């Protein structure tokens, strides 16, 4: 069995691909290797995927013609679509990046799935679609009509496009709303990386709302298990109502850790893992961010057998240990210039809600 994975050089994309290869499956992966963060990390992730059953093609999913040409002669009948432009803060400054990758790119993947009559399309959504909702935990049936960032708006638009294609063309699809994913090989624009780097170097870290905010932090291995469980169980075209409310073969699930943790505790765990105290700089909550997230995972538990196993106390030290090996022990540093490093530190407080 062969699967197409988009965003294969990304944090979650590479982890999902490793798991598929470990199951003995074949994967063709595509990624545009853009410079949103240093490409050296993406190449390093790809190097971990070396396998006779893996093939990588550099490709931008926003280019529909290139995607169609690539697909000719390729053998795959399932798609795990994880390629997207990430980041809440970046969407305030570069909105057209999200138009290309998240909207045009998602539509092109839908058209590819339609043309190939794929047996299942699993795609990444985000906890950001819940916007400023205050009812916790967030449930897939909650209203998601008022996103507080363009990034979130594009992810909700992806869900709606998928719903229409499932209805019109009966393409089985599963959308997965990821909640604050972290772990080894994570992104350098997200809080675990930036906070760990700053604490080790003795630099201050900026905490939104003084750290008085909560997130449902989810370890990458648990996310991968959820993605594979979803991939193996496409929604049936049987007229039943699916999680998310569709009658068409389109289901939506939350993938979180089922626990909302205070950001101050997140920092304390990094302090314990590094043996160093953080220098805290409290800052106001920025535009596009929210005070709390918490995933209701009961539909995923019931339908997919999803059961997160890694607590923040266990998972975050594993990230710190990996970071010290990768980013300090001779591997390519992700901050390729002083300007890039300063920008990353400036935005550290906004990255806690990023998902992949």
Can you describe what's shown?
With 356 residues, the protein is an alpha/beta fold. It folds into 2 domains: 2-180 and 217-255, NAD(P)-binding Rossmann-like Domain (Rossmann fold); 187-216 and 260-293 and 311-353, UDP-galactose 4-epimerase, domain 1 (Alpha-Beta Complex). Helix content is 41%, strand content 16%. Helix 2 (39-47) links the parallel strand 2 (26-31) and strand 3. Helix 5 runs parallel beside helix 6 (150-169), helix 7 crosses helix 9 (263-274) and helix 7 (191-201) crosses helix 11. The chain is globular and about 55 Å long.
In short:
The protein is an alpha/beta fold and 356 residues long.
Please report the number of helical segments: 12
Number of domains: 2
User: Oligomeric form of this entry?
Assistant: single chain
CATH superfamily of the largest domain: NAD(P)-binding Rossmann-like Domain
- How much of the sequence lies in strands comes to 15-25%
Runs with pLDDT <50, length 5+?
A: 332-356
Largest sheet: 7 strands, parallel
């Amino acid at each position: 069995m062969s699967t197409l994975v988009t965003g294969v050089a990304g944090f979650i994309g590479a982890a999902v691909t490793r798991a598929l290869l470990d199951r003995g499956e074949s994967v063709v992966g595509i990624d545009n290797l853009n410079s949103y963060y240093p490409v050296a990390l993406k190449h390093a992730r790809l190097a971990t995927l070396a396998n006779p059953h893996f093939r990588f093609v550099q490709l931008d999913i926003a280019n529909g013609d290139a995607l169609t040409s690539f697909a000719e002669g390729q053998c795959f009948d399932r798609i795990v679509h994880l390629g997207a432009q990430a980041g809440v803060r970046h969407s305030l400054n570069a909105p057209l990046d999200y138009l290309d990758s998240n909207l045009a790119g998602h539509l092109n993947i839908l058209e590819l799935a339609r043309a190939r009559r794929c047996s299942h399309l699993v795609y990444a959504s985000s906890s950001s679609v819940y916007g400023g909702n205050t009812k916790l935990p967030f449930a897939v049936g909650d209203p998601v009509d008022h996103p507080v960032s363009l990034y979130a708006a594009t992810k909700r638009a992806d869900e709606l496009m998928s719903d229409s294609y499932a209805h019109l063309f009966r393409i089985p699809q599963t959308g997965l709303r990821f909640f604050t994913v972290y772990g080894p090989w994570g992104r350098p624009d997200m809080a675990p990386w930036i906070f760990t780097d700053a604490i080790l170097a003795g630099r201050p870290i900026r905490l939104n709302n003084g750290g008085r905010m909560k997130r449902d932090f989810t370890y990458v291995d648990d996310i991968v298990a959820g993605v594979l469980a979803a991939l193996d169980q496409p929604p049936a075209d049987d007229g039943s109502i699916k999680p998310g409310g569709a009658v068409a073969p389109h289901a939506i699930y939350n993938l979180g850790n089922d626990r909302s943790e205070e950001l101050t505790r997140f920092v304390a765990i990094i302090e314990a893992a590094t043996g160093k105290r953080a220098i805290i700089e409290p800052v106001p909550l920025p535009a596009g961010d929210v005070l709390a997230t918490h995933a209701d995972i009961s539909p995923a538990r019931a339908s997919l057998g999803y059961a997160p196993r890694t607590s923040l106390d266990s998972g975050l030290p594993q990230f710190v240990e990996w970071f010290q090996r990768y980013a300090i022990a001779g591997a390519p540093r992700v901050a390729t210039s002083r300007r890039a490093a300063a920008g990353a530190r400036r935005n550290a407080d906004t990255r806690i809600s990023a998902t992949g």
